[in-house]
Specification:
Elements: E1 2-9, H1 16-24, E2 33-40, E3 43-50, H2 56-60, E4 71-77, E5 84-88, E6 91-101, H3 104-113, E7 121-122, E8 125-126, H4 128-137, H5 142-152, E9 155-163, E10 167-170, E11 180-184, E12 187-191, E13 203-207, E14 213-217, E15 221-226, E16 234-235, H6 237-242, E17 248-249, E18 252-253, H7 254-266, E19 275-278, H8 284-294, E20 297-298, E21 302-304, H9 318-328, E22 329-331, H10 333-336, E23 340-345, H11 352-363, E24 368-373, H12 397-406, H13 414-418, H14 423-436, E25 440-443, H15 446-453, E26 460-461, H16 463-466
Parallel strand pairs: 16-26, 19-20, 19-23, 23-24, 24-25
Antiparallel strand pairs: 1-4, 1-12, 2-3, 2-4, 5-6, 6-9, 7-8, 9-10, 10-14, 11-12, 11-13, 14-15, 17-18, 21-22
Helix pairs in contact: 3-4, 4-5, 7-8, 7-15, 9-11, 12-14
Length: about 475
């Protein structure tokens, strides 16, 4: 996916150190590219690095002395190289995005036919952020150009623009991803992830609303250029999976949500369980709530070897994903041997990682493996964010199981498979349990997930569970 950060300082103070560490606090959102740009003394400075085999701090620390300026933007991206630098009739600007553009090829062709060209190519298609910048440059103003992006892009797009006057932030039209505004006596900050604020001394002021556009300048501070819209489809996985525990979105803390989500699920538990263990990391908050709800102890039966292994779905091939998934998790045999354990995890995508985990748990001597998943089964591919690198719905375990159960006819009954109260749903889950080789499998209900987030369902994107978002 990706995350970004921006700083605007008062009184010509340098923003460089805060920008560097603020961007780094978005590192859990992506692992491919990192970039920073600043403005000062009438000039822009930029640096972009590949961070697939290292960390953002390691790559950029040596660049810091070359940066200067009182305002800047930075990004961690799982997609394209950013920031992009642009000079057009609106002026000079740099831009970073958190976006998924499903109609990228069509938009590229449309712009080429209108006489535009693209410099920073990714294969046969334009760099998505460059394409967004090109659409903005067609506008009569920055606001008009950003609204052209909102109108044209199928998917989602939030962005930060670094101009000669300050920073412009625009949250995705339906708020699928988020932007938070913070401030202190020395300036302002904007970020995807609020965990970037505390150690840099910023207080969270508010979240930008869906489609809201804000300009932050050293003399005027944060000024709303476009009010937010009424509709919102914020991604449920920001809480369930992506978000770092201290972060909050729409006023809801990630770790609190995960705890409550597990607690609600535990109220319906009836299996014989000795203790509850998370599958790290995003299963931890859920496991704590689940253990409290069922009155069983919480123990770390699986540990993540954090010094070297990145997130499992980011490598480019399935073979590498499987290898990383196996290497980074270590079963604690001393705790697991002879025990009946409930293992809590955030989701099941392909099922490969969990199946391998279960094999390791059996070797460690676990008597019963009960798996509890914090969200419903993933039945529909995400069309709005780069949640996984799946290329088709058949990479989702749930869809493969539906095909095995009913063949192509199963496509006609996806709504029933998504409903946890139907016989089709129960057969699908039991078939998944057999495929994974576990003693029991339960998914949380959509009702519990929505209740733990605390927003009306109409404001949360749950498309991957029930196919409900068609905006």
């Amino acid at each position: 996916m990706g995350g970004f950060f921006s700083v605007v300082k008062r009184n010509n103070q340098s923003c460089v150190n805060e920008l560097f560490y603020g961007v780094d606090y978005n590192s859990h959102m992506g692992t491919r590219r990192g970039g920073m740009a600043t403005f000062g003394d009438g000039k822009f400075e930029r640096s972009i690095h590949n961070i697939e085999n290292t960390y953002f701090r390691n790559k950029f620390e040596g660049d810091l002395d070359s940066f200067s300026g009182s305002w800047g933007i930075g990004v961690i991206s799982d997609t394209d190289a950013q920031p992009i630098m642009i000079r057009c009739h609106l002026g000079r600007f740099a831009i970073v995005t958190v976006a998924r553009i499903n109609n990228l090829s069509a938009l590229q062709q449309e712009l080429l036919e209108r006489g535009h060209h693209f410099f920073e190519h990714c294969g046969e298609t334009a760099n998505p952020t460059e394409l967004v910048a090109t659409l903005i440059s067609e506008g009569k103003s920055f606001v008009d150009g950003i609204n052209r992006v909102f109108e044209k892009v199928e998917g989602s797009c939030s962005m930060l623009l670094l101009t000669e006057h300050g920073v412009i932030a625009a949250r995705d039209r339906l708020g699928r991803t988020t932007i938070a505004l913070g401030s202190n006596d020395q300036g302002w900050a904007l970020t995807s992830e609020t965990c970037a604020f505390p150690n840099l001394g910023y207080q969270l002021d508010r979240q930008l609303g869906p489609g809201e556009i804000v300009e932050v300048t050293p003399d005027k501070g944060a000024v709303t250029l476009q009010a937010p819209g009424d509709q919102m489809q914020v991604c449920a996985f920001l809480w369930t999976y992506y978000g770092y525990p201290p972060c909050q979105y729409e006023g809801r803390n990630v770790d609190d949500m995960r705890y409550d989500n597990g607690y609600l699920m535990g109220r319906d538990e009836n299996a014989d369980i000795d203790f509850v263990s998370p599958i790290p990391d995003s299963g931890t908050g859920m496991a704590l709530g689940f253990s409290q709800s069922i009155g069983r102890s919480y123990k770390r039966g699986i540990m993540k070897y954090t010094p070297t292994w990145p997130r499992s779905f980011t490598p480019s091939t399935q073979e590498r994903r499987e290898l990383v998934a196996k290497m980074k998790l270590i079963p604690n045999k001393a705790l697991l041997y002879g025990k009946k354990v409930a293992f809590c995890d955030d989701s099941i995508v392909r099922g490969t990682q969990l199946r391998d985990n279960v094999a390791d748990l059996r070797q460690a001597g676990v008597e019963k493996v009960h798996v509890r998943i914090s969200c419903p089964p993933l039945i529909y591919p995400c069309e709005f964010l780069n949640f996984t690198s799946s290329k088709s719905e058949m990479e989702l375990l749930a869809r493969r199981v539906i095909l095995e159960l009913e063949g192509p006819e199963g496509e006609k009954h996806l709504d029933e498979y998504a409903d946890c109260h139907t016989d089709r749903h129960k057969r699908m889950v039991d078939h998944m349990r057999e495929h994974l080789g576990i003693d029991s499998l339960r998914f949380n209900s959509l009702e519990n997930l929505v209740a733990s987030i605390g927003l009306p369902k109409c404001k949360i994107c749950t498309h991957c569970f029930d196919g409900s978002s068609h905006f």
